[in-house]
Amino acid sequence: MSQRTPEGAKQRLTTNSRKDNGSARGRSRVLGQPRVSVTMKDVARAAGVSVATVSHVLNGTRNVSDVTRKRVEEAIRSTGYSRNEIARELKTGASDLVGVHIVDYNPFYTDVLRGIERALEGEGIRFVVASTGENWSRQLELLSAMIARRMRGLILAPVDGFDAERVAQLVPPDTRVVLYDREVQPPLFPAITSDNLSAARQIVDHFADHGYQNIGIIASGEHISSMQHRRAGFVQRARELGLNVYVFETESNEDGGRRSAHQVLECKRKGVSIEALLVTNNLMLTGALSVFRSVGLRIGEDIAVAGFDHHFWCDAMSPPLTMVKQQAELMGERCVEWLLRSDSGVGVIERLPTELVIRGSCGCRSPQLQANPC
Asked: What's the rounded Cα separation, in Å, for the pair 142 and 157?
């Protein structure tokens, strides 16, 4: 709600009561009037150097003595100068930014971002992040916005329905694209993923070592390579070993995990006891565990459980969770390496090895952490 100011209370308020000394910092400004912008000329005047020298300090385009650099940096601070990035982009034709797409804000993507950040900082490059929410229309919209900002590169987690050919048509020839976590067809961009097939097979081997005969997997029905490979590796290895395998297909979230857990319990009521279960992401795992505990099932005793994406909280659970650990930070670093390479990387798929971190939820009784490379 707006309020009328009493006539006698009207004043010309200023942001700086000091007398104007001719510098940008000392000028008074009436509230509501345009702010006086500080230019590189103001910085050069304050530092006693040329505009070209200020530009060299800002952009690192030429060696400048430490004494001069410090004078310029002090002038930047004292004048309040802020570089106009948009103007620089218009002049150079590209920004010094890399755009990154994540699917959501789960810990796996946080770890990938940490690797990206570390690798880009070493190159003096910044990045911006956007979440697609596993929605192709949103990813396309975000992609168009980043292309409009003339990003120097794009690191994308492709969503279900990702159209590689459409992306190739949209992206300018001089903008590099690297995919991670998931593979797409046709393979028009380099992709850095985990070896999900081998990881799932190793979990089946571990279940078989316990003597479990009826094993199951909770997996999403989305058409994304990571889920498809985990499901395929699990089912293939179970059949090779002559085990009975049950697939519970659901949505890739906590509700989906809960629904599948109820289906597991329904199997038990019908006389088929699932002895061991792989849940293929953390969200579904959280939902499934909540259902099992609500009916009094003892994890690791009444039913063995393993999952994907090991994190510190897995050890704090009771019992601690047996999990596949992906090299998420390394995945981020490798994305940057491919982004900066001169070759196109078309058709390249790099699958990073995983590690099976064995805890008590699978039925192992050893109190010590066991880590087996997949």
From this structure: 12
